[in-house]
């Protein structure tokens, strides 16, 4: 299967997405002191992914079926958007997808398909389904999705003023970092720092090589950002151009961040949702001085209760 032709979005696409979404979703709060938290975990689906899904389904032809693959959160965003807009949608998830996310997907009026032992296999199946006459909506390699995620920046611009700004966000396929990077390209004194997990440095390796590089994805608490990239993904060049740097965090640092967010802020997060905070706690991203705001995007809360209980109960990395 050859690379799909995907249009590279621009800052103007992010601006248009903001005009679509600012009346459709309530702004998520910024809380905390020192490093701040942008609580995308409070979105109606529990993740920032609803932004890209709503923007994409608003842009795609009304009669066109949407097919997507997801580790969970993008699928929930698509299910929410399809239900709100009255659109047909098929969501393909791998057989090992989070039980919490699969249960949540089951509450929406969509076609849910479980296929494959990994996200890559689920994505390949979704691409085959789309070839029968549907729009394949990638969780990251799509201009409408990328632009929708970038609207977090527009909210931050209204919430944090008068200082330089560093935004720290998780990186899986790079859609969030790309969207934020496009937004930042139009702003003075804004930098974007991406955070991957050691178990799946897909984007960092691709940026280094200048193209997608297959990697071994190891087991990780951050299942939402652990996958290989689609070959030819437009996020590779966007991250290379607009993201200041990418750092990575360990499983121990992720677990520490999940416990910290629960104990210090009363915030429930999944592993991927805590990645940005993990990087800050581990000193891998230096917060700015008095003239700076540093904000971590807490990107999702959809963690299985048994996994959350085990992480919170353990004092061990």
TrEMBL record:
EC class name: lyase
Cofactors demanded by this protein: pyridoxal 5'-phosphate
Keyword Lyase: yes
Keyword vocabulary terms for this entry: Lyase, Pyridoxal phosphate
GO biological process, one term: L-threonine catabolic process
Name listed for the protein in its UniProt record: Threonine dehydratase
Native source organism of the sequence: Saccharomonospora amisosensis
PANTHER family the UniProt entry points to: L-THREONINE DEHYDRATASE CATABOLIC TDCB, THREONINE DEHYDRATASE, MITOCHONDRIAL-RELATED
Pfam families according to UniProt: PALP (PF00291)
EC numbers: 4.3.1.19
An example Gene Ontology molecular-function term: L-serine ammonia-lyase activity
Domain Tryptophan synthase beta chain-like PALP: 35-300
Record's keyword annotation contains NADP: no
InterPro entries to which the protein is assigned, alphabetical: Ser/Thr_Dehydratase, TrpB-like_PALP, TrpB-like_PALP_sf
Highest taxon, organism lineage: Bacteria
SUPFAM superfamilies: Tryptophan synthase beta subunit-like PLP-dependent enzymes (SSF53686)
